[in-house]
C-alpha cells in the first residue's frame, strides 16, 4: 500500500529549515538566553527525525551525506580538546577563556571558549542520536 | 642527573624493540637490548664509592604530590647491591638468550619487551623509597613474570604456570599493599625512610602486628616461601633465560629485599623474628627434601631455589635479632644473608644456564634419560660442577663461605634467650643441618646424574654436542665469579655486603666499616660449623650413593594430598562456586534486574530517610497551585493510568509522550524555559525513536506472570514512587548547606562571562559532568551501532551457510 504523503513531505521541506535554523540560533544564544549545545543538538536531531518520518532512510542519507558516527567522534574530540587546551596556558584543566571582540558585521561580540565546548556537545548529541536511529531504523 | 629516570630506561627502550625486531631481521634483537643493562650496570657502579662510605643518593620524581605519592630513587647499600645484581645478571642473561632463542623462530619482539618491562619493575622495587610506588613496581614484576612464563602461550603448561604464579604473587602483593597502607596510617607518610625514623612509636599501635603479617605475606609469596612456593616449580615452563633471571636471581629475591628493607621497623617484634626465621628454615628444609624427588633438571633447580631462598630468609630473621642483643654472631647472620644472596645469584644463575644448554643440546631435561655427557660437553660439565659444589657448600667455592656462616648463625640461635628461643632454639641447628645434607644430595644428584655415568644414547631426541661459545660465555663468567669470590670474600664484603648490612640495620652501625665481620675459610677445629660441614659431607655422600634405594620413599605421598592439589581445588571451587552464585540471581531477564535495582534503591533510601529522621515536609516553602497546574496534573495522572492499562504498545507510547509533554508544561508554568525546551525536544525525539523501533519490538505479552508477581511489582513500583516523592519533598523542605544558586547568580557574569546560568552550569561550572555525559552518550551510540551491525553480519553468515 502506498500512502499519499505529499502534504507531509512538502511541509517538511520547509519546516526542516525552520527547525534547523532555530536550533542554530538556540545554540549560539545559549550562553545568555535559554538554549545551548544540548538542546540545539536535540532540536537538530528532531528536525532530521522529521525528515526521516516524511521520507525514507535512503533519501535522507543521500540528502545529508554525513557519517554521524564520525561526527560523534569529532564532537567528543572538540569538547575534550577545549577542556584540555587550558593546560597549555598553565591554568587548571577545563578553565574557559572569554573576551569581547569587535568583529565586522557583528559589532562588539563576546567570544567564549565555552562555545567550542558546546559545539562539541552539539555534534555528539546529533551524531549519537542519529547513529542510534539509523542503526535501529536501517535494521529490518 | 636525575637518576630516578634511569629506572624507566628499560621500559622506554622496550618501546623500540618491536620496531627493531621487525625492521632488522638480520641482527638478533638481543644485541640491541644488551646495551641497556650494560649501560645501567656501568652507571650504578659509580654509586659504590658513595655507599661504601655509608652514604646514599636520592632522586625524586613527583607523581601524585597531593597524596604523598612519588617515584623516589633512594640508593643506599642495599639498593645498590640489588641494582647491580639486576643489571649485571640481566646483561649476562640477555647475552645468553641471544644464543638460546632462535631469531627466526621465536617471537623475540615479545620476549625482550617483557624482559625490559621486568627490568624497570625490578629496579623500581629495590630503589623506591615510597611504598606506594614500590607496590606499583612490585605488581609490575608479577605481571611481567606472568607474561614471560606464558611466553610459549600455545602450551597448556605455560599458561597454567603463568596463571598460578600470577594468582599467588598478586594475592601476596595485595596483602602487602594493605600492610603498606596500615604503615602509612601509623606513620602518616609513605616514605620508607621516614617510617623507619619514627618506627619506635609503632610498637604499641593496634595495626603493628597486622601490618607486619600482611607485609610478610607479600614477601613470602614473592620469594616462594612455604606454603606459597608451589608457583615456582610451575614457573619453570618459562624459557630458561627467564628462569635464570627472574626465578632464581632477581624477582624471587624481591621478597628478601622487602624483609631486609623493613627489618628496621619490625625487628623489634617477636612475631617477625619467629616468622621470618621459622618459615625460612621450614622452606629450606622442605625445598631441599623435595628437590631430590624431581626428575626434571629445571624442577630440581626450582626446588633448590625455594630451599636457598628459605636459607637466606632464615638468616634475615636471625640477623634481626641484633635489635635485641649485641652478640656478634647475629651481626654475622645479616652479613651471611646478603653474602649468600650474591653467591646464590652466581651459582644458581650458572646452573640454570647449564640446564638450558643441556635442554638445548640434547632435547630433554629429564634426568632419567640423561647421563654421561661429561666427555661430550666438558665445559658445561665444569661450569655445572663448580655451581653445584658451591651450592652443596664445599670449598673452594663461595657457597662454602656463606654456608659455614649460616650454620654458625643457626647454631647460635640455641643460646638466644629471648622469646622462648632457649626452649626451641635447639631445633634450628638440627633442621638446618638436615636441610644441608639434602642440599648436598641434590647438588650431586643434579650434576652427576646428568654428566657422569653411562650414556643412554638411544633415548635422547638430539645428538648431543658442546654448546656454542656465546651460549657458554655467561655461565662461564658466573662460574668464575663463584671461584673468585671464594678467594676475595672480604673485598666483596667491603664493597657490597657491609654497606648493605648497614642499610638494613641503621640502628646498629653508623659506617659500613663498623660491621665487624671478616670472612675466612678456616675457623679452626673448634668451629661447630666445620664439624657440621664434615657431617654433611659424610652423611650426604652415603645417602647420595644409596639414592636409588630410598628415592622411592617419595612416591608414598599421594598426589591428592599435596599443596598443588589444594591450589587446584581452590581454583576449581572458586570458579564453579562463583559461577553458581552468579547464576543464582542472574537469570538473564532485564525485568528481574530492574526489580533488584528498584527494590534496593527504595528500601535503602526509605530506611535511611527514617532512621536519620530526615523526613521533614515544610508546607510553607511550597509554591501556590494555580488552575493550570491542577489541569496539567490531571492530564499527567490520566496519561500514566492509560499507560498501565493500555492493551497495545502504540497506545502506551503515545500516552508516554503525553506524560512527558505535561511534565514539560510544568516546567513552563514554573518558569524554567531551558528545562521545558529540553524536555519537549527529548520527548519528541524519544517518541519518534520508539515509533522507529516499534516494528522490531515483540508483541506485548504478560511474560507468564502470575497475580502474585504482579502484586510484588506493584509494591515495588509504589515503593519507588513513594521514595522519590519523599526525597523530593524532604530535600526541598530542609537545606543542610545553603544553596549554591546565589553563588551562580553572583559570578555568572564576572567569572564565566555568560548570562544563562543553566547553560553556563552545563559548559563551565560543571563542565566535567557534561564531558562525561557526552562520552557516555557516544559510547551508547557506538554500542547500539555495534550490536545491531554485528547481529546483521551474523544473519548474513547464517544465510550463506544455508
UniProtKB/TrEMBL annotation, chain A:
Residues 7-130 form the Na+/H+ antiporter MnhB subunit-related protein domain. It comes from the Bacteria. Keywords: Cell membrane, Membrane, Transmembrane, Transmembrane helix. The chain crosses the membrane at residues 12-32, 38-57, 69-91, 111-133. It is a multi-pass membrane protein. Pfam families: MnhB. Its main location: membrane. It is found in: Cell membrane. Belongs to the CPA3 antiporters (TC 2.A.63) subunit B family. This is Na(+)/H(+) antiporter subunit B. The lineage of its organism: Bacteria, Bacillati, Bacillota, Bacilli, Bacillales.
